[in-house]
Structure formats: C-alpha cells, structure tokens
Amino acid sequence: MADLVTLNDRYDIDPGQPLPDYDSPSAKAYACRDTSNNSEMLALVCDPKIPIRVEAINALRGFPNHNLMRVHEHGVVNWAMTGRRMPVLVMDRPRGGRVFAGDSQSIEAFADEELSRGFLTPLVSTMREMSQRGITHRNIRPDNLFYSDTNRRSVMLGECVTCPPGLNQPNSFESLECAMADRTARGDGSVLDDLFSVGATLLCLLTGRLPAEEADPQRMIFDRINFGSYACLVGGTRLQMNMVEVLRGLLTDDPRERWTIRDVELWLGGRRLTPKQVKLPQKAARPLMVGGGTYENVRSVAHAIGRNWSTAGELVRGQDFDNWLRRSLGNENVVEAVNKVTGGPNGIQSAPAEEDARLVTRVAIGLDPAAPIRHKGFSAHISGVGPTLALDFNNDATRQKVAAFIGSRSVGPWMSVQTRSKQDLLELFSKFDKLPTLLNSSGPGYGLERVLYELNEDIHCMSSMIEHLYVTEPAEVIPALEAVAQQDRRPPIPMDRHLAAFLGARSTDIDDRLLRPLGNSSDTRPAIDALNVLRLLARIQTLSRNGPMPGLSHWFVELMKPAVNAFHNLKARAVVENSVMKASESGQLGEILKIFDDQRSQQRDQQGYQRAQQEFTQCAIQIAQMNLDLQNKDSLAAEVGEQAAAVVSGVLGSVGTTAIVILYLV
Predict the structure, then answer these.
(1) Hey, is 154 helix, strand or coil?
(2) PANTHER family this protein is in (predicted)?
(3) How many CB atoms lie within 10 A of CB 111?
(4) CA 498 to CA 505: how far, in whole Å?
C-alpha cells in the first residue's frame, strides 16, 4: 500500500487507488478524502508539462453550483511515483459516472425532456455563474460530462482547469474562430465560444453518437466557412423542430447572431420561435485563386492566404487581388479594414519585399478581424501565444514561430480593427507591446525565456536545476537552490537563463541593475560571474525572508575562492577567507556579499601591491647599475674584484628582492 500524500494538512490522497474513470487528458485521478468531514473527493494529479489555469481556479473558489466539478483545493505535493513534485487539484467526485463511459462512441440518445431538465437547465445556471465571475469553461464536450447523481438524472460539466483553454477540444466542438487557430493557441475565448460547444455537445446527446474523426481538418474548416457549421455538423440528421431551433441558435457562426445564455433560458421557459435560417457568408462577384485553390468569400480567402503565406505576398501586391478586394468583393467595411492595417494600396506596394510575411499577416487581419492572427503558418489568438510557448518551449520550430509572431508586431494592427473593447485585451496589448524589446535582448534574464514567463504568469520555473521542484514563486527559489546545493552533483553555478528570466518576470524588485551584469562578458575580474549571481540571489533571499541556507552559502564560498585568492597581501587574504567562512555559517547570502562589496579593502590591497611592484622595480634598477659599474674596472684585480662583486651583488640583489616581497606579502 502506497503512503498517503497529504495536501495542506487536510486532504489525504491515496496513490494506491487510481480512478481512471475520472482521468482527464492532462491529469490522472486518485481517491482522496477530506479529513475535516471524512467525505470522498477526487484528486487530479496534473501533468507538470502542461500549464494549469490558476486564474480560473482562483475565480472558481466558493462556486455555489454543483453542476460543475469544483476545485476545493490545489497545491503541489511530492509524488513518489514520478520522483518529483506535482501540481494537484482536489475536486468534487461525480456520483453517477461519465456520460460517455470508457471508449464508447455511442450511448442511448437523450430524450427531449432529459436534455431540457437534466442537461440544459443545470448547464445555463452554471454558465451564468461562470460568466459573472469572468471566466470561460472551454472544455465542454460529450466525453467531459458526468452524471451528478446516482440516479443519472442530472448532467454536470467536467473540469476545465488542468490545461489551457480549448487544448483538448476536437475542432467540431469549437467555434470557427477558435477552430481556425492552432490547437495550443485557441485562447480564453468568450461565453459565446462556450455556447457553441454546448450546441455541438447537445447534438451528440440528441443522437447518442460522437462525431467521426475528421480526415482532413482544414477541408472541414473551409466547408464550415462556406456552408455554415450547423449544416456541416448536423448534416442529414433528422431532428425535431424544437431542437432545430436551439441548435441553429447555438451553432450559428456569427457571434452576434448566436444564442446567449438568456436566449437558452427563454427557450427552456417555453418560448418558441421560427428557427433561424443559416446565414452564409457573402460571395464575391468572382472567386480568387490562392495557392492553387479558388475561394469565393472573404473569410475563406483570409484563411487561405494565411495558410499559403510564403507565396501570398506576391498575390496581395498584384492588381488581381486589388481588383477582387475593391470591386468583386463589394464590402466597403472590409476594404476600410484592409486599408487601416496596411496603409492602403500605396502602403502595400511600398512595403519592402523582405516584409512580405508581415504584409500577408496584416492583409489577413483586415479581411477577417475576428479570426486568429496568422503569421508564417502560426495561427493564434493573442491569449493563446503564451500557452503555445509553455507547452513546447524546447521545440525549435515552436520557438521560431512564436519569436516571429512577436517580432511581427501584429497585435497593434489587430487591435485597431476590433469592434469590441475589453480590458483584458488592452492589458494583453500592453504586454505584447514590450515583448520585442525583451526578446531582442540576448543576456540572461531576457530573450525568449523572459517572453515565456511574461506571457504565462502562473507557470513554474523551467530551469533544469529546479524544474522537478515545481517552483512557482520567487520566494520558493532560494529553498529550491538549497536543495540543489545539498546534492552530490550540482551544476557549475546556481543560475541559468530560465531562472534569471523567471525572477525578472515575477519580481518587481529584480530589474536591469541586477540582470544586466549576468551577461556582461567584458568584466574579467576573478569570480565576477559568481559575484553577480550572489548579488541577485542575496536580494531574493532578503525579499523573501528565507531562513538560513547553509548549503547554498557553502556553494558560494567555493565559487568565490578565485576572488579571495586575488588578494595579494597574505594577511589580507587570510582575513577575507576567515570572514567568508564565518559569514557562510550564518546561511545568509547577504553576509557573504558584504565582504566582496567592500571596495575599500580591495583598494587597499591593490594599492599595496602597486607600491610593492614599484619598490621591486627600483631595486632591480639599482642592482643593474651596480653591475654596470663593476664591468667598467680595467685591471686584473678589478676583473677579479668584478667577479667577486658580481657574486656579491647577485647575492645581495636576490636577498634584497626576496626581502621586499616577503615584507609586503607578510
């Protein structure tokens, strides 16, 4: 029997009781007990490589509705099965099991009454509460539904916090705007995106079947653009008219036309309207050829040039595209938006050829402002850029496409054509605006590592030294490094690019004055790298009020030995060495730092050494002069005397020089 793991002195997690029926794609479920009231709970042990939604977890605290798997507690525990620290969520345990259990692709279809009372009624209550708390679910699909009671009368939503929004959603359960983005970059979305997912899930419950896997996801996206998502998802399925009404309301592609929570509530209350007709996109007078395909409406053209970005530069500069945009399309709003982000025809034509990728990105933004930003094959909503980088930071292709996306400075033009104005978008814009500067700085504490932590405020530090300890706060860094210092094999120095970037992004007290010296290769003083790291970590230890760290202090004693040995005066060196050892016993890095920040002792040593050098030089000159005088004697006696004098002078010179050096060093 595995030992119980206790979270926050209240929840006992049993690693020996896995509950695979409650697993999420990014978390494993285990039995858990609330020791305060002996109730059975569920612990989801999350994959540490996948960012969890800490902001949503905090927003869901005290959630009153029981039709959602609520998070009661979260934290980090030592998990013996993986030999590292893991993030854990303690949640409600649904009483009736999963709706689509195991690998089943079909179930008995829900009756209308079951759907209304058992699914939609509790669902809208949950969504309204979430909306009021300013968060989205973004994980609504049939295999994430559970029965909340043993009689299986009511359905509850599964968890929504163990991965970035939309990561595990099949395309068919995502709105077109989200489905067009890379899976990792779908972003937070809105309640309207959640309502689309509700419509697609409702269709599955009505038919009792999950949709078949899409053989060609991009073909499916173009079909949804051209024929509407409702037509593509429902197909030839026969539905009762009342269900057609709610499905058309929820699956419409225009967010302005999509049903709101209030519309669903009115429908549940008995309001019945004639089902909305699917509103298809306006066709241009003639199609436009992009990348070998022909496209008839503005959204499909935007998506096509985004996917064919490497050749689309020539296309958008051509007269054919200009004629199509200004004459064939017949939509002045689109023309105005394209002009706004590109500077109009003159702006397009004057753009340098090497800026083609950026030009294509801006044209696509102008054509379809609601779509994700597409740049060099990366399609992302801006709140999805950070999760993309966090999920695959060590992949060179991912690093390059995110760096290119930030370097394109496309967020500003995209903001300029948005019709909505949300505070969170403004905050994101402000954040993206400073990223190119951070990205283009190459020293430790900057670069793409800094971008990673700026865009993901809740992820743990990915330094290879402490990644396994799942450090999420600056205050946890020093204890983590103390654990590293206690190891038999430790890295050369307690700092790397990830750790510097993590501290720079997380602590307002760590600024350029502490970070810039880490990458200053022109400073050749002994142990200067260690001294700069010591200065930064001493600051963190002081700010965090960590206790004594003897292992880390001893580590710095060793790292600073070259600086100690740089003292020329043996007495001064012994004094410094003794002071460092005494300071290390306190376990406070600041005490060690004070010794090496004492510029006066170093100046005294340097000045004394210079004086000794000068005296040595003067003695050497005097000896040389004496030798020269002796060489001028012209008699044998003088010759003999010269030899004797040379011997004597040599002895005297050696004795004199040695005496001077000994007198200084001692």
Answers:
(1) coil
(2) CALCIUM/CALMODULIN-DEPENDENT PROTEIN KINASE KINASE-RELATED, SERINE_THREONINE-PROTEIN KINASE CHK1
(3) 12
(4) 10
Q: 146 pairs with which residues across the strands? A: 98, 156
Six-digit token pair at 567?
A: 């003292």
Other Cβ atoms within 10 Å of 601 Cβ, number: 16
Residue identified by tokens 């060495």 is: 577
Residue range 352-399, pLDDT digits in tens: 999 999 999 999 999 999 999 999 999 999 999 999 999 999 999 999
- φ and ψ of 32, to 5 deg: -145, 145
pLDDT digits (tens, 9 = 90+) for 254-294: 999 999 999 999 999 988 776 667 778 899 999 999 999 99
The confidence score (pLDDT) of residue 656 equals 54
- Phi, psi dihedral angles at 240 (to 5 degrees): -70, 150
CA distances from 548 to 293, 576, 588 (A): 67, 21, 6
Q: What pLDDT, on a 0 to 100 scale, did the predictor assign at position 380?
A: 98
What pLDDT is attached to residue 87?
A: 98
Three-state DSSP class for 569?
Answer: coil
CA atoms of 432 and 423, how far apart (whole Å): 14
Percent of the chain that is helix, strand, coil (3-state, to 5): 55, 10, 35
pLDDT at 632 over 90: no
- Buried b or exposed e, range 328-340, using 16+ CB within 10 angstroms: bbebeebbebbbb
CB atoms inside a 10 Å sphere around CB 36: 9
171-188 average pLDDT score: 97
At 84, give phi and psi (nearest 5°).
-155, 175
621's CB contacts (< 8 A; 6+ apart) are none
649 close to 625: Cβ distance less than 8 angstroms = no
Quote the distance between the C-alpha of residue 502 and its chain's center. 10
DSSP 496-508: -HHHHHHHHHH-T
Locus of tokens 């004496």: 626
Tokens describing residue 312: 């689309």
Rg of the Cα trace of the chain?
A: 35
Residue 289 has a pLDDT of 96
Percent of the chain with pLDDT over 70: 93
CA angle 276, 282, 284 (to 5 degrees): 165
Across the strands, what pairs with 68?
Answer: 157
Closest CA to 367 of 335, 324, 415, 332: 335
Checking if the pLDDT of 643 tops 80, the result is: no
Place of tokens 């510097």: 500
Which amino acid is present at 469? L
Residue 638: pLDDT above 80?
no
DSSP class of residue 258?
Answer: S
Q: What is the DSSP letter of 181?
A: S
Q: Cα dist. 376→337, 410, 461 in Å?
A: 21, 12, 29
Q: What distances in angstroms separate CA 407 from CA 331, 358, 372, 403, 448, one per listed residue?
A: 31, 9, 17, 6, 11
Q: How far is CA 401 from the centre of its chain?
A: 14
